[in-house]
Design the sequence.
């Protein structure tokens, strides 16, 4: 074993901790955003397949935090659609960024890199063809 | 009488099944330290320090993926551990690398040309790593409600409530999803995944929190934790397939069933070209990684000159695997020619191979090996008996003595002892002849046998890698 100075060791530990914190923070924002995404989806399907009561109403209530806002169904639908698109995008962006971070933490920890981690995915048709080969 | 018969039947079926012990079953790796220094006795290998260290470097090179298209030759006298080292290399490479072990005589078959058989072996030893990515919804079922309309014509409606440890949400279900939920028998407490692209539902198991719901549950019920995190997840899986597998699929007239029937027949060159092109495309787009593995050809002197020429050419292509060959021949004729060449291989191929030589084991090594084999075969031996075995190995051969262990074990059990002693060894030595005694006996009674050629006769059978080959003829010369 080669000698490692306390300072160098501390640096490594600090780096790993920083990376770890970032990864955890990202994971939680993904979870939070997915929660919102699912609530939005429920709201959207409630508008698209209205109950008997809702069919009579022209307007609906939208709840944001402590605030209730009365809007038309169409307008709410448009808002939610836009929100969903934004959330999908953000989640994908976070996921894509998560990978290099995990890889970096693994190298900092001295773990072997995961094989095939940075591969691009195969398209669905390509995967179907290959799946036959795997039985 | 009848009852007795039944009794015997039951006894017969209750026999303890003993697993078979292969000649190289004790080998678990090359037994090297992280710095590639060989430990004297480790992972079932003994001695051969230089050969093992050299093999270690090859494994390291292949693992790093830095080299392709190299050839390695393991050369040495019979019974010096060539196959053992090859097995150890394969073990050392681990799961992630494709490795094909074959004997050179396997490629000669009436159904397939030798070139085709070699190509298939080579392509079986090259893997490609690919990644699959799917969006799935994974969670525990909280509630399923399916409303059936009173009339048969109306559409069904359903709702599914799913949760993870972090969130809970309700999905409206369409007709198709309702059907598959009914088919899969999904109920509250099940943990399921839904593939977003295909809508396929898979049941993973039941939630731990529901483990005490019922008193009687099928043994196949699997209990798992409620999933964590988000409901809609991205799942990535990497797969490894060999080029040969893909060839077989695309060789249309056979279809993919050919993979299982074992008879793949010949594959057209155009198909291989197409696949090479596709794989190159994937590599360019970052969709696939090529993993060159190892192809081990034992008894390589059995290949003909055409095969060697073919190998020569195949090694030059990109994506070639590392070819490890083993031979126990000295300077001998290349098969299919009248030319003499070292190891029975043409010079041009020898030129591009790295040659690892195995040396005869020392006395101490032989004793070590015998001890390991005794442990592997679950036979306990006294110290004197082990010495006697080692002594015998000097005058006969290592392989012969290794066979004696099993015989001695049976003899030892016959006299209801637990440890094999020298008496067991000498009795088994008398029971089974080694090749030298057998030869002497043949010579002594030569006039009573048919077609006898004498000791230095031309009838030197070209047998495989068996110890009997080196016996009658000239001593091995290793270059």
Sequence:
């Amino acid at each position: 074993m080669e000698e490692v100075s306390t300072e160098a060791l501390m640096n490594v530990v600090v780096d790993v901790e920083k990376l770890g914190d970032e990864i955890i923070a990202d994971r939680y924002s993904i979870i939070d955003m997915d929660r919102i995404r699912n609530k939005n989806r429920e709201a959207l399907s409630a508008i698209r397949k209205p109950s008997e009561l809702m069919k009579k109403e022209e307007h609906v209530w939208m709840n944001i935090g402590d605030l209730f806002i009365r809007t038309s169904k169409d307008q709410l639908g448009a808002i939610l659609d836009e929100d969903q698109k934004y959330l999908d995008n953000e989640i994908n962006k976070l996921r894509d960024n998560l990978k290099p971070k995990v890889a970096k933490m693994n190298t900092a920890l001295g773990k072997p890199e995961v094989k095939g981690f940075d591969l691009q995915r195969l398209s669905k048709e390509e995967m179907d063809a290959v799946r036959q080969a795997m039985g | 009488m009848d009852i007795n018969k039944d009794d015997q039947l039951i006894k017969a079926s209750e026999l303890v099944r003993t697993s078979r012990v292969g000649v190289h079953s004790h080998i678990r790796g090359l037994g090297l330290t992280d710095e590639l220094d060989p430990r004297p006795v480790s992972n079932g290998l003994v001695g051969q320090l230089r050969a093992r260290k050299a093999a270690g470097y090859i494994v390291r090179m292949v693992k790093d993926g830095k080299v392709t298209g190299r050839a390695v030759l393991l050369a040495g006298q019979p019974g010096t551990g060539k196959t053992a080292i090859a097995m150890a290399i394969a073990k050392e490479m681990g799961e992630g690398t494709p490795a094909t072990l074959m004997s050179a005589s396997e490629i000669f078959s009436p159904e397939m040309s030798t070139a085709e058989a070699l190509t298939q072996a080579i392509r079986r030893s090259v893997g490609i790593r690919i990644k699959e990515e799917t969006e799935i919804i994974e969670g525990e079922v909280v509630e399923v409600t399916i409303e059936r309309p009173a009339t048969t014509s109306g559409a069904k409606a359903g709702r599914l409530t799913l949760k993870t440890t972090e969130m809970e949400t309700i999905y409206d279900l369409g007709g198709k999803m309702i059907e598959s939920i009914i088919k899969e028998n999904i109920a509250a407490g099940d943990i399921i995944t839904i593939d977003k692209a295909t809508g396929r539902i898979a049941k993973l198991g039941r939630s731990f929190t529901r483990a005490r719901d019922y008193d009687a549950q099928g043994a196949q019920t699997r209990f798992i934790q409620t999933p964590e995190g988000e409901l809609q997840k991205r799942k990535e899986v990497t797969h490894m397939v060999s080029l040969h597998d893909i060839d077989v699929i695309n060789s249309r007239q056979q279809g993919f069933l050919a993979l299982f029937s074992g008879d793949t027949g010949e594959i057209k060159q155009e198909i291989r070209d197409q696949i090479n092109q596709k794989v190159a495309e994937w590599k360019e787009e970052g969709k696939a990684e090529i993993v060159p593995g190892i192809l081990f050809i034992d008894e390589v002197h059995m290949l003909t000159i055409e095969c060697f020429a073919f190998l020569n050419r195949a090694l030059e292509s990109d994506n070639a695997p590392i070819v490890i060959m083993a031979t126990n021949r000295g300077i001998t004729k290349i098969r299919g020619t009248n030319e003499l060449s070292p190891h029975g291989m043409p010079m041009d191929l020898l030129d591009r191979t790295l040659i690892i030589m195995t040396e005869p084991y020392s006395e101490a090594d032989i004793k070590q090996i015998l001890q390991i084999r005794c442990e592997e075969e679950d036979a306990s031996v006294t110290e004197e008996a082990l010495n006697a075995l080692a002594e015998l190995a000097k005058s006969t051969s290592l392989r012969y003595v290794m066979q004696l262990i099993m015989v001695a074990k049976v003899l030892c059990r016959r006299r209801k002892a637990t440890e094999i002693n020298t008496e067991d060894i000498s009795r088994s030595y008398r029971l089974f002849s080694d090749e030298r005694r057998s030869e002497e006996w043949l010579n002594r009674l030569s006039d009573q046998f048919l077609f006898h050629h004498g000791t230095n006769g031309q009838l030197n059978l070209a047998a495989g890698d068996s110890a009997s080959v080196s016996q009658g003829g000239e001593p091995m010369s290793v270059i």
